[in-house]
Amino acid sequence: KLDLLTAKVMFNQQFPEDTFIDNPKFMQLMGISAKTAQSWRHNGVVSYSQIGSKIYYRLSDIRRLLDRYHVKSTFEE
User: Fold this and answer.
1) pTM for the predicted model, two decimal places
2) Exposed e or buried b for every residue in 35-73, given b needs 16+ CB within 10 A?
3) What is the Cα–Cα distance from 59 to 63, expressed in whole angstroms?
4) How far apart are CA 57 and CA 43, in angstroms?
5) Best label site of 33, 36, 48, 59, fewest CB within 10 Å?
């Protein structure tokens, strides 16, 4: 559990909750295509901000997306 907590603290230091990433970084992070990112935005799968033609995602929204679709292992306590 200590290793997990340490990893979480390190992640939070590297990527604070209020950090925004642009669409290319989002697609790279999630390993998805531009079409999939567009589909997720259109279908309300992920929240985003748009300024002109630039699209941004809040890391806390991405984390919430992953938590929503998280499937627990049968070995987790």
Assistant:
1) 0.72
2) eebeebbeeeebebeeeeeebbbbbebbeebeeeeeeee
3) 6
4) 15
5) 33
From residue 60, alpha-carbon distances to 2, 18, 40, 76 in Å are 23, 7, 16, 23
Closest CA to 65 of 15, 26, 33: 26
Query: Would you state the torsion angle of the CA atoms of residues 16, 20, 22, 28, taken in this order, to the nearest 10 degrees?
Result: 30
Return the residue matching tokens 């909750």: 17
Using DSSP, state whether 51 is helix, strand or coil. strand
pLDDT tens per residue, range 22-47: 999 999 999 999 999 999 999 999 99
